[in-house]
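Design a sequence for this backbone.
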C-alpha cells in the first residue's frame, strides 16, 4: 500500500518541475519581447525626434505621456517636438514639467530657456539661464546668453558670450551671422561687415549672411556688391536689398539703378523689384 502513493507523488513532482520549467521559459520569452519592445520604442522615439513630421511627433509623445506620465524621455520628447512644430508657448509649458523630473539635466533647463525666448518671454528666459551654473559651458547656453544680453543692450556681455559661443562649435557660421547682426543694430557697420564675411567664409551657402553683409555695406553708402559666392537669383535679390537700403538713406536714383539691375539680373520675373521701381517712378511723376 505504501508503494501506491509513490507514483502519484513522483508524477506530481514531475508536473511541478515541468510547470516551473514552462514558467521560466515563459518569463524568458516575455523578457526577450520586453527587450525588443524597448529597442523598438527607443528607435521610434529617435525617429519622432528627428525625421518625423513635427505634429505627428507631438501626437505620438502626447499619447505616450498619457500612458506613462512619469517617463522623462516622453515628457522631454513632447517638449522638443512642440518646439519643432513651432508651438513655442506649449513647449515652454511642457519644459516646466521636464525640468522638475528626476533625471532632468542642465541641458533641459537651457532648452526651456530657448523655448521661452522663442515664445517671446525674454525676462523669464533670463531668470532660467541664471539658474544654470557657470560650469555648464555649451554652445547653446552661450548663444542664448548672447541673445538675452542683446535684448538688454548689454553690449559688452553680448560680445563676450558670442565670442565664447563661437569657440564652442565647429560650425560657427550661424552664430557669427547673429553676432554680426548684433553689431549692425548697434551701428557698428565695419565690425558687422567683418563678421558677416567670416560667416560666409565658414558657410558660403548662408544667404542670410550675404543679405546682412549687403545691408552693412549699404549703411556705409557702399553700393557695390561684395565678392562672395552667389548664383544669379541671389545676385538679383542682393541688388534688390541694396536698392531698398539706398532709397531708405535718400539715394533714390542709385536705388532705382540698382532695382533695374536686379530686374535684368533675375532669371525670372522679379515682381518685388518691379513693384518697388514702379512705386519710385510714380512718386517722382
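Sequence:
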Amino acid at each position: 500500500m505504501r508503494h501506491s502513493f509513490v507514483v502519484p507523488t513522483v508524477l506530481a513532482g514531475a508536473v511541478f518541475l515541468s510547470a516551473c520549467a514552462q514558467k521560466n521559459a515563459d518569463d524568458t520569452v516575455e523578457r526577450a519581447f520586453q527587450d525588443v519592445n524597448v529597442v523598438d520604442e527607443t528607435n521610434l522615439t529617435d525617429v519622432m525626434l528627428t525625421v518625423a513630421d513635427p505634429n505627428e511627433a507631438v501626437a505620438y509623445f502626447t499619447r505616450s505621456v498619457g500612458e506613462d506620465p512619469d517617463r522623462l524621455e516622453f515628457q522631454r520628447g513632447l517638449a522638443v517636438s512642440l518646439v519643432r512644430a513651432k508651438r513655442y508657448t506649449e513647449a515652454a509649458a511642457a519644459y516646466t514639467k521636464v525640468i522638475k523630473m528626476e533625471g532632468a539635466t542642465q541641458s533641459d533647463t537651457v532648452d526651456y530657456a530657448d523655448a521661452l525666448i522663442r515664445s517671446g518671454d525674454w525676462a523669464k528666459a533670463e531668470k532660467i539661464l541664471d539658474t544654470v551654473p557657470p560650469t555648464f559651458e555649451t554652445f547653446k547656453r552661450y548663444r542664448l546668453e548672447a541673445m538675452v544680453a542683446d535684448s538688454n543692450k548689454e553690449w559688452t556681455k553680448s560680445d563676450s558670450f558670442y565670442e565664447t559661443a563661437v569657440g564652442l562649435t565647429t560650425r560657427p557660421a550661424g552664430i557669427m551671422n547673429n553676432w554680426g547682426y548684433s553689431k549692425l543694430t548697434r551701428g557698428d557697420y565695419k565690425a558687422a561687415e567683418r563678421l558677416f564675411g567670416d560667416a560666409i567664409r565658414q558657410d558660403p551657402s548662408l544667404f542670410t549672411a550675404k543679405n546682412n553683409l549687403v545691408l552693412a555695406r549699404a549703411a556705409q553708402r557702399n553700393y557695390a556688391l561684395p565678392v562672395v559666392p552667389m548664383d544669379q537669383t541671389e545676385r538679383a535679390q542682393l541688388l534688390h536689398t541694396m536698392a531698398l537700403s539706398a532709397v531708405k538713406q535718400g539715394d533714390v536714383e542709385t536705388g532705382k539703378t540698382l532695382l533695374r539691375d536686379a530686374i535684368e539680373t533675375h532669371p525670372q520675373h522679379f515682381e518685388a523689384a518691379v513693384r518697388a521701381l514702379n512705386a519710385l517712378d510714380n512718386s517722382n511723376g
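The chain is about 75% helix and 0% strand.
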